[in-house]
Amino acid sequence: MAVTLETDLSRVLGAKTAKAMAESLDLRTVRDLLRHYPRRYARRGEIARLDDLQVGDRVTVLAQVRKVTSRRMRNRPGTLTEVTVGDGAGQMQLVFFNRKFGKLEEGSWGLFAGTVGEYRNSKQFAHPDFHLITGDDDEDWARALIPIYPASKDVSSWVIQKSVKLLLDATGGFGFVEDPLPEDLRSRHGLLSLAAALLDVHRPTSAEDVERAQDRLKWDEALTLQLVLAARRRAAALEPGTARPRRSGGLLDAVDAALPFSLTEGQREVGEELAAELSRDQPMHRLLQGEVGSGKTVVALRAMAQVVDAGGQAALLAPTEVLAAQHARSISAMLGPLARAGELDGDPAGTKVVLLTGSLKAAPRRAARAAVADGSAGIVVGTHALLQQGVEFADLGLVVVDEQHRFGVEQRDALRAKGERPPHVLVMTATPIPRTVAMTVYGDLETSVLRQLPSGRGGVASSVVPVADKPTWLDRAWERLREEVAAGRQAYVVCPRIGDDETGDDETDAPDDADGAPGDAKGGDDDRRPPLAVLDVARALDEGALAGLRLAVLHGRMTPEAKEATMRAFAAREVDVLVATTVVEVGVDVPNATVMVVMDADRFGVSQLHQLRGRVARGRHRGLCLLVTEARETTSTGQRLAAVAGTSDGFELARLDLETRREGDVLGAAQSGRRSGIRMLSLLEDEELIAAARTEATALLATDRGLADHPGLAMEVAALATDERAEYLEKA
């Protein structure tokens, strides 16, 4: 049978197995299967003994099934199956929820792989991957390294292992695989051929085999991504834009004169950098990242003012209506009469600042769109509504994207496309990004960094409140909040859920456990309770610990008018405590707020906690952030929260975030998993490889023929890239 990388798996594995792989793992072709790499390897002779296991270890054990029992769970629908296994030296529990087993019977021997947890002082696996040993396994069991694959409930690791072996037998090896990497590139970096690397990664005989194979396969992933980004940079460099040089005596000078504070040295340096790039014909493509509260918005406003002075328009794209409204409000306040050109009290030398969101009523929406279309609105602030058909700009000169991680590349480009000529682009993020991530995710952008905070900020002290270990600390937390309010200041209480709705309205991006295990959850049918909800917590606080204070709630299900009214009341000090979801995560600026209490802090990611903490101490008073959690201090979750509390360096926390989250979480939904080919590359460990791939990708596309002389590489890139990315490669 002639097999290629594009051959459907049904021709090799049969319809039933192929269907299961397609539906549960999205593996459809031979290429998909061969690129589905082992997560790790079980070593014969090094199988862990049950009596040696430690909680938190990721292990594979060889054990015999001693007992199988099933029962209905008390606290939620479904069945709990408990399996006792032993290896002669000890025994442990395996716990499965709503799963049927067939051959998992007493007396069976099998391999069980998972992360060791603990429940009622006994070690256990929750949902371990397993394979029962039969006579058919003698050859595989004799191998020194047994591959353990990412699997699903319908397709186990061992089914994948057997499928790879079947493919290997059917083709007489992987000789049919053509190598996409140029031979001179492989030689320069000492890389295996693709066929050899695939054989060694799936059927290794030694750890050295695995290491060499992984190095080669990481190159495939890194080069694919860097080719896409290099193509975007090259395409952008070829597009003529419009220079927007600085003009004295205009809006920018008025902004500088109106600022109630002096710019930091970092703001001045980045400002000069942007001013120089805006003055060129070649469109600017720059990422501005910085610490929470480092003043990125002021830098962006000065760039927007320069573009308006040069006759163009600037659009600021924000991820939420709350943030968009606040940007419009703060920009208008900073510009004063200069933001109201054409109005009775406006300065004719100024411009209009227009807010355009999806919730605008028909008449104001028409008026806003008309001001954008005729050019009288020089600064346009909005949400995704800016991307809609019918929003036309007279002369779009600058696109500012706030909180880039909330938007995809295609959304950024949709707004760029609204200019007659490509506008300048400034992308901002308050989530500091390690260099490896910046090279991989934002590699089509030049990068500027703001680390310095404005003078006069009080700073934030952070503490973990471990209620399971120290229950009285929560009472003290509420006392501290009351003390701050008594001193004339305000507070936030943040919860991960809205409440009064059990359809699952979590507003958190807390990272999943890397192995799909329950992490620090207790396991069994005593699973973690639902996340705390704003409406429930606000009610309890109003009747209890914070009785007598003025409380208000803020969450994503409120109408835009209600959200705006609540934020205005909080900013005007008419509310003492704002109980909210993560809608306050970015951009909300109330200098009088000094306390933030994050409930169920373990449900949030590291970067998100840092963002939330940045909402307090934005004035001269010192701030306090209290991370409330039921996680034990000794657990990995407790230690993660302690690390967040222990440093205010966002770049250090970004690295911690990268260590504790899946690569796909860091890359974002549009840039993770199969769509980008990121399966093996580690952004944390492979910085040198990523940098080398960037150099090679740039060189490959710098030639007149681009990838035309490397059809195998072009096909591989097209297969691993998204349609949108492949389109950019074709253009380049």
Assess the beta-strand content as a share of residues.
15-25%
Portion of residues in helices? Answer: 25-40%
Which CATH C-level class of the largest domain is it?
Alpha Beta
What gap, in angstroms, lies between the N and C termini? 37 Å
Low-pLDDT runs: 502-526, 664-676, 722-732
Computed over alpha carbons, the radius of gyration is 28 Å
Pfam families: DEAD, Helicase_C, RecG_dom3_C, RecG_wedge
GO molecular function: ATP binding; DNA binding; DNA helicase activity; hydrolase activity
Organism: Geodermatophilus nigrescens
Domain Helicase C-terminal: 473-664
Which tags fit this structure?
25 helices, 37% helix, 7-stranded parallel sheet, alpha/beta, 732 residues, 21 strands, 6-stranded parallel sheet, OB fold (Dihydrolipoamide Acetyltransferase, E2P), single chain, disordered C terminus
Overview of this structure, please?
- With 732 residues, the protein is an alpha/beta fold.
- It has five domains: 1-39 and 154-177, no CATH class; 48-148, Beta Barrel (OB fold (Dihydrolipoamide Acetyltransferase, E2P)); 178-238 and 685-731, no CATH class; 251-450, P-loop containing nucleotide triphosphate hydrolases (Rossmann fold, 3-Layer(aba) Sandwich); 460-502 and 530-647, Rossmann fold (3-Layer(aba) Sandwich).
- Helices cover 37% and strands 18% of the residues.
- The strands form four sheets. The chain has a seven-stranded parallel β-sheet with strand order 11-12-10-13-14-9-15, sandwiched between helices. A six-stranded parallel β-sheet has the order 16-21-20-17-19-18, sandwiched between helices. A five-stranded mixed barrel has the order 2-3-4-6-5.
- Strand 13 (396-402), helix 14 (409-416) and strand 14 form a beta-alpha-beta unit.
- Mean pLDDT is 82; it is low at 502-526, 664-676 and 722-732.
- Residues 473-664 form the Helicase C-terminal domain.
